[in-house]
Amino acid sequence: MSFLKELRNRELAYALVRKIKEVFPKKPIKICHVCGTHEWTIVHYGLRSLLPDNIELIAGPGCPVCITPALDIDQAAELALEGKTVTVFGDVSRSVGVKYSLEAVRSEGGNVKIVYSILDALKIAKSDKSKEVVFFAVGFETTAPLTALHILRTPPKNFSILSSHRYVPPAVITLYSRGKLEMDGVIAPGHATTISGLKTYEPLAKEHGIPVVASGFEPVDVLMSIIMLVKQISEGKAEVLNQYSRSVTWEGNVKAMQTINRVFELTDAHWRGIGTIEHTGFVLRKEFKDYDARYKYGLKNVNYASEMHPGCRCAEIMLGKIKPTQCPLYMKVCKPSKPVGPCMVSIEGTCRIWATHIAFS
Amino acid sequence: MCLAVPAKVVEKVGNVAKVDFGDNTLREVDVSLVDVSVGQYVLVHAGYAIQVLDEDEALKTIELLSEILSE
Ligand code: SF4
Question: Could you tell me the sign of the dihedral formed by the alpha carbons of A229, A235, A240, A244, in that order?
């Protein structure tokens, strides 16, 4: 994998920037990506400052923690308060619902355990079968096959999952067609698309005329993807291209998608701050309902009037409408050490990525 | 959360492989979601291989890069 060095090569990056300026159409264009790791690369390597002013790079809803509904967080917290052991990823535990964060419940003695993967959660469940263990399953199609794999391996009866897994391609397509996400081209998320396959983004190009490029995560990868989009936009083309062909294929990881589809079905699902999007939520199929914490504990759907902290503008951030610096709470009240909104919690959250880079500069 | 890192498969027994992330330390990874052989590179996400990396395709990307730059 020695080529990885080339993909971080400064001279190559500058040469690409010069090329982008050559092919760049004079009209303003918006390029949207849907992945926290792409945002990290863009901010970390200062790519926005290298590009011509009228190319705007927008960060879409590419952070699983950010879009996890406040209700799911509160229900996971309530399960912990009722005495169940709730297992959760560290960053998810810091996100605040309307009533609770799992971290706060934990510091008050609630039964919350931080895990690295579902495997750790299962180990906890197997170690004491008299205790109910819930795994708070957050993440896109990159993470969902891991959950599915273990559901197929017949977990113990005291184990269940609270699924907030979400599927990205239909979300991007729907948000674009509803006019909620504005863009002239899209960078498909490299690792989520590794699973779903590039074909899942085809409707954007075919039906909506939006060019798509799946991109790797090195700075040269991202700049190459931008040029591949800019060229198409200036020539009036809309194709689905693959810059990250070392990992992404047209069909995706078929084994992983089959594993997901055996265990989950897609349902209309809520994205925090954004609303309900059809066919984007992974829920356990009926045959696995005993592992579904919502069914097992009779959790009810509740509509919150507002699921964001007053003043938090995360909803607009996740749709690329505003930048973190336009939120009045940014770095004043809301900081990585004391996040107010979900976009400041996870390393994939736009506010947090921006905040940690200010701190270093 | 979608972070994934390349690693080389050094050993494989059933669905468990020992991989090297380039630091000469072997770590166990679940390879149930991919069809991989010893010597290949996988992309590892949270302890699970989610893809076998295609080295030929990686070289093609580098070729594409020089094409773009020389156009
Ligand atoms: S800075 Fe904090 S409060 Fe403002 S939008 Fe971001 S997460 Fe929300």
Answer: negative
Global confidence as pTM? 0.94
- Surface of A (7-66) touching B: CB under 8 A: 12, 15-16, 19, 35-37, 62-65
Residue with tokens 């991919």: B34
Q: Residues in chain B with pLDDT < 50?
A: none
Torsion sign, CA atoms A67, A68, A69, A74: negative
Q: Which two tokens stand for residue A131?
A: 């205790």
Please enumerate in sequence order all residues whose Cβ is within 8 A of that of A106, keeping only pairs 6 or more positions apart, or say none.
A80, A93, A112
CA distance A310 to A351: 16
Answer yes or no: are the C-beta atoms of A67 and A182 closer than 8 Å: no
Question: Using an 8 Å Cβ cutoff, are A119 and A94 in contact?
Answer: no
pLDDT of residue A24 exceeding 90:
no
The ligand 1 atom at the shortest distance from the C-alpha of residue A316 is 5
Q: What is the pLDDT of residues A222-262, one digit of tens each?
A: 999 999 999 999 999 999 999 999 999 999 999 999 999 99
pLDDT, one tens digit per residue, over A283-295 is 999 999 999 999 9
Say whether pLDDT at A69 is over 90. Answer: yes
Check B35 against A259: CB less than 8 A apart.
Answer: no
ipTM for the whole complex: 0.93
A138 touches chain B (CB under 8 A): yes
- B chain contacts of residue A62, beta-carbon cutoff 8 Å: 2
Hey, which of A101, A272, A308, A312 would you mutate to test ligand 1's pocket, going by the most ligand atoms within 8 Å of its Cβ? A312
- Measure A327 CA to ligand 1 centroid, in angstroms: 6
- Residue A57 Cβ < 6 Å to ligand 1: no
> Kindly report the CA angle at A32 between A138 and A229, in degrees rounded to 5?
130
Pairing of strands A159-165, A133-139: parallel
Q: Is the CB of A105 under 6 A from ligand 1?
A: no
Catalogue all structural domains in chain A, each as residue range(s) with its CATH number. Answer: 1-310 (3.40.50.11750), 314-358 (no CATH)
Report residue A196 as tokens: 């779903």
